[in-house]
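testing teh design pipeline on a random one, pls ignore if ur not involved
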């Protein structure tokens, strides 16, 4: 009898276990794994106590938590400028109705640094690749209670969306911008403008990571005046990554420009030639070469070019081979050159190198020497250093001429009358008064107009001191070694729109 009762009890228990595992219980495993789980991108809207705080791009990730439940993850959630961080809604139960799956969930968040303590109630629906989510948040901000409503409408990602959220290029096509923006490691974007430039409506061209979105958009004018900082927000294509960039003017610069558009006629008869203006800032080798007609030399090393230009007029510097007339007064070669400073005609015969007196007063820290050039070297390279007659001039086979473009900042040194003692052709490249230089390293042939931007580099042991007085020498030549009478006749350097940027 006891044995029979035992078997009956066992049978009842087994029936109970069987009923608990009934085939009628839902199993959404396949639906979750194939249709629901994944990332969703969309807009998240926040409302606090009836006040709309606007929307933002957001990615929500859904994962399987069980046969009938899901987990939801909201990355980098924030409201009222309080970064809450990642919000996790775990083990949200699913229920199905007509192919639509609804879920609920709860969680709590705490941000001790902001004094925030909140409970979160969630309700949502997933169907046909769409996710809708409503969050009711009761937040205690210190002793202040806030009722926050968050809504999200998103579309399921296919997994091929890009994840980058970088600004890769930020530029302006504006004459007031002297130095194009630099994107720094801390996600600040800084640039410089010319003194007095209008920066109230600068239009940036912005390039971002593939598929990413930037707000404000590229091509939209922004006000950068009076130290204003413009914030740009970049969101990746999958809405999973957001980066914030802050753009602003970092300083102003000045520009000293030589356009070579204005010229004057000097001399008469065989010595009639043109010289570039302004003549209180610019000088050239044409001033000395204009005397060579006395020795039967025709032509000049400096010309105004009106046809092949970047804008207005350009300057053409040509190396003259006068080796067949070389004597104590006529050099074997005269390079075409233009420079800031003065040409001392009184020294042109007795000390040719000393006649080029380089430099004009400059009260800024030079940053960049820039402009446009093209260059054609001559065919026969000669060495006329020290030559006093034609047979002493040596032809250097295989040697190719190069041009020279450079700028030198040097310290003033005053004579007994309080005037600066200028550097000249003898010491412009060696004087210990030199502080900074900008040098074109590639003086080879350039068939087409080529833009150059040469940074000023401080020489070893030198620093710029705003309390000192300086001279700025810009020296350009059709033959790099023309100062020692080496080069090729016919070498031609074209220059246009020469500028020195300072700050």
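output:
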């Amino acid at each position: 009898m006891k044995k029979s009762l035992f078997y009956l009890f066992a049978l009842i228990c087994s029936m109970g276990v069987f009923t608990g595992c009934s085939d009628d219980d839902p199993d959404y495993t396949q639906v979750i794994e194939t249709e629901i789980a994944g990332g969703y991108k969309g807009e998240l809207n926040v409302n606090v106590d009836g006040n709309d705080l606007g929307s933002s791009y957001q990615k929500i990730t859904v994962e399987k938590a069980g046969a009938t439940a899901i987990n939801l993850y909201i990355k980098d959630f924030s409201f009222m400028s309080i970064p809450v961080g990642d919000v996790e809604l775990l083990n949200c139960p699913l229920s199905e109705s007509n192919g639509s799956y609804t879920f609920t969930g709860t969680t709590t968040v705490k941000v001790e640094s902001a004094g925030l303590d909140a409970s979160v109630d969630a309700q949502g629906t997933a169907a046909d690749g769409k996710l809708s989510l409503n969050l009711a948040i009761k937040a205690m901000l210190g002793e202040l209670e806030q009722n926050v409503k968050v809504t999200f409408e998103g579309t399921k990602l296919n997994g091929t969306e890009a994840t980058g959220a970088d600004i890769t290029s930020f530029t302006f096509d504006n004459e007031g911008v002297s130095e194009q923006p630099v994107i720094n490691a801390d996600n600040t974007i800084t640039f410089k403008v010319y003194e007095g430039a209008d920066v109230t409506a600068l239009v940036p061209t912005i390039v971002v990571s593939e598929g990413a979105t930037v707000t404000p958009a590229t091509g939209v004018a922004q006000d950068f005046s009076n130290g204003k900082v413009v914030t740009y927000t970049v969101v990746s294509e999958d809405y999973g990554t957001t980066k914030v960039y802050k753009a602003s003017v970092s300083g102003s610069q000045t520009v000293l420009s030589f356009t070579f558009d204005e010229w004057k006629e000097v001399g008469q008869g065989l010595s009639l030639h043109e010289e570039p203006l302004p003549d209180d800032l610019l000088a050239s080798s044409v001033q000395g070469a204009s005397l060579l007609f006395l020795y039967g030399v025709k032509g000049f090393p400096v010309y105004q070019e009106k046809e092949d230009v970047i804008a207005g007029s350009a300057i053409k510097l040509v190396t003259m081979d006068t080796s067949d007339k070389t004597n104590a007064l006529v050099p074997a070669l005269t390079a075409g050159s233009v420079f800031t400073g003065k040409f001392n005609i009184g020294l042109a015969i007795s000390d040719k190198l000393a006649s080029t007196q380089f430099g004009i007063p400059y009260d800024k820290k030079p940053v960049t020497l820039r402009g446009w050039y093209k260059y054609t070297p001559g065919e026969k390279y000669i060495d006329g250093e020290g030559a006093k007659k034609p047979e002493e001039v040596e032809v250097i086979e295989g040697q190719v001429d190069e041009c020279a473009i450079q700028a030198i900042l040097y310290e003033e040194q005053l004579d007994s009358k309080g005037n600066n003692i200028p550097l000249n052709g003898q010491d412009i490249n060696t004087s210990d008064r030199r502080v900074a230089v900008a040098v074109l390293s590639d003086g080879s042939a350039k068939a087409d107009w080529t833009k150059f931007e040469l940074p000023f580099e401080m020489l070893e042991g030198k620093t710029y001191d705003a309390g000192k007085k300086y001279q700025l020498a810009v020296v350009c030549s059709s033959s790099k070694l023309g100062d020692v009478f080496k080069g090729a006749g016919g070498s031609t350097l074209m220059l246009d729109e020469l500028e020195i940027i300072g700050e």
